[in-house]
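Give me structure tokens for this 71-residue protein.
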Amino acid sequence: MYDDRIELPKSPPDSMIRYLMEQRDLKEADLLPVFGARSIASDVITGKREPSKAHIRKLAEFFHVSPAVFL
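Here you go.
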């Protein structure tokens, strides 16, 4: 049986978001459905603000990863 899950290294949420964005060639604006506002997206992506629990759930769904990736 093939398991397509990969183990990601532990890193701060902003680093992981930037990594996942880079892998998918996404821009900050592409995450507006997750954060709802450009200012919030910017603050979370740059590490000025921690993602909320709701953001973590939406990020996990958006990127198809476990919410634990962002904790």
